[in-house]
Amino acid sequence: xxxxxxxxxxxxxxxxxxxxAEFAEKGxxxxxxxxVTAITExxxxxxxxxxxxxxxxxxxxxxxGSRAVPFDASGITAPVTYVGDCSGERTADIAxxxxxxxAAANAL
Length: 108
Ligand SMILES: Cc1cc2nc3c(=O)[nH]c(=O)nc-3n(C[C@H](O)[C@H](O)[C@H](O)COP(=O)(O)OP(=O)(O)OC[C@H]3O[C@@H](n4cnc5c(N)ncnc54)[C@H](O)[C@@H]3O)c2cc1C
Hints:
With 108 residues, this protein is of the alpha+beta class. The chain has 2 domains: 1-64, 3-Layer(bba) Sandwich (FAD/NAD(P)-binding domain); 67-108, no CATH class. The chain contains 2 helices and 3 strands; from the N terminus they run H-E-E-E-H. A 3-stranded antiparallel β-sheet has the order 1-2-3, with no helix packed on it. The chain starts with 15 loop residues before the first helix and ends with a helix. The relative contact order is 0.11. The protein binds flavin-adenine dinucleotide. Residues 84-85, 92-95, 97 line the site of flavin-adenine dinucleotide.
């Protein structure tokens, strides 16, 4: 289930075709434009547009993303730089982590 209009939209062009081929082979059903609103005993509850969707299940795997959780450094007089996942640039992206750390190191 994915609330965007496509599954794994951020996945690389090298990996995505393999994932989709395996989904097709295993008969994995995809529900796009479908936002999960609750998990109940025995079902995942969602909305697709105006329509309520209930999918019975006996197991749930959640992969709903990541977000930065930086400490509040306001009021600190020493320079504080956020790099990597907490930089606010992009989470869960090693290239962004390296890029922001490199820029911070060069700025010291
Ligand atoms: C399973 C998995 C697979 C991934 N695969 C990919 C991939 O294929 N490609 C890709 O681009 N990215 C991938 N990522 C994301 C990538 O690992 C991260 O974007 C990257 O590691 C971010 O680096 P970072 O240094 O900001 O944070 P992290 O590597 O998470 O390092 C942060 C460190 O800070 C420590 N820490 C946190 N709070 C405190 C505190 N209060 N005091 C002291 N220490 C603290 C943590 O213990 C951790 O060691 C993956 C992540 C995971 C979890």
